[in-house]
């Protein structure tokens, strides 16, 4: 049996077409069965204005925008629970906000205060210092201690918000 060049090319083209169809099917499956329903479920959580699921496989992530006045401390855990339940694993959740450069600079300063307060266990003093530094910068700070994280919201006079989730370290266990 003799194999011709035409047979090799035909076989190669059939292989490429099969791989292409499989890849296309996987992309459609990811969009219609995974990303779209997950994004819709997260968007239905009270306080979420918009949700987007990006990537696929190990690169999958969820982005959320909160409604004005929504409490980060109640919305974020609900988003994490919904994502974990529907995706079968924890996915990165990115919180989109409308922070100003001044709020970003203040947040960088406050991270040291929060780290020190957490390391020393001086949570009340930490909250007082965060409030004082935010007020000096013309912002209002809300720092809520949750089970697994601290939730920081900085709001300036024009209602721009910086939203941050700061994971807690309980002894040797990072949560």
What does the model show?
This protein has 175 residues and is an alpha+beta fold. The chain folds into 2 domains: 5-96, ANL, C-terminal domain (GMP Synthetase, Chain A, domain 3, 2-Layer Sandwich); 101-174. 51% of the residues lie in helices and 23% in strands. The protein has 4 helices and 8 strands, in the order H-E-E-H-E-H-H-E-E-E-E-E. The strands form 3 sheets. It has a 3-stranded mixed sheet with strand order 1-2-3, with helices on one face. A hairpin with a 5-residue loop joins strand 5 (149-155) and strand 6 (161-167). Helix 1 packs antiparallel against helix 2 (72-87) and helix 3 packs antiparallel against helix 4 (123-136). The protein is elongated, with a radius of gyration of 23 Å. The termini are far apart. The model has no long low-confidence stretch (mean pLDDT 89).
Notable characteristics:
175 residues, 2 domains, three-stranded mixed β-sheet, 8 strands, three-stranded antiparallel β-sheet, alpha+beta, 4 helices, GMP Synthetase, Chain A, domain 3
CATH superfamily of the largest domain: ANL, C-terminal domain
Q: How many domain units?
A: 2
CATH architectural category of the largest domain:
2-Layer Sandwich
**What strand line-up does the widest sheet have?**
1-2-3
Tally of separate helices: 4
Main sheet: strands, sense, barrel: 3 strands, mixed
Return the CATH topology of the largest domain. GMP Synthetase, Chain A, domain 3
Characterize the overall form: elongated
Which structural class best describes the helix and strand composition?
Answer: alpha+beta
């Amino acid at each position: 049996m003799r194999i011709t060049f035409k047979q090799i090319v035909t076989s190669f083209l059939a292989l490429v077409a099969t791989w292409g169809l499989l890849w296309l099917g996987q992309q459609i499956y990811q969009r219609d069965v995974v990303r779209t329903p997950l994004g819709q479920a997260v968007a239905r959580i009270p306080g979420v204005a918009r949700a987007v699921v990006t990537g696929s496989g190990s690169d999958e992530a969820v982005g959320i925008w909160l409604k004005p006045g929504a409490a980060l401390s109640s919305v974020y855990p609900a988003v994490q629970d919904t994502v974990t339940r529907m995706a079968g694993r924890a996915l990165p959740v990115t919180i989109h906000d409308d922070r100003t450069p001044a709020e970003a600079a203040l947040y960088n300063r406050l991270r040291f205060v929060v780290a020190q307060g957490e390391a020393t266990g001086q949570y009340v003093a930490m909250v007082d210092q965060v409030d004082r530094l935010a007020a000096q910068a013309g912002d209002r700070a809300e720092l809520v201690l949750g089970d697994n994280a601290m939730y920081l919201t900085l709001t300036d006079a024009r209602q721009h918000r910086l939203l941050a989730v700061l994971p807690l370290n309980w002894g040797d266990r990072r949560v």
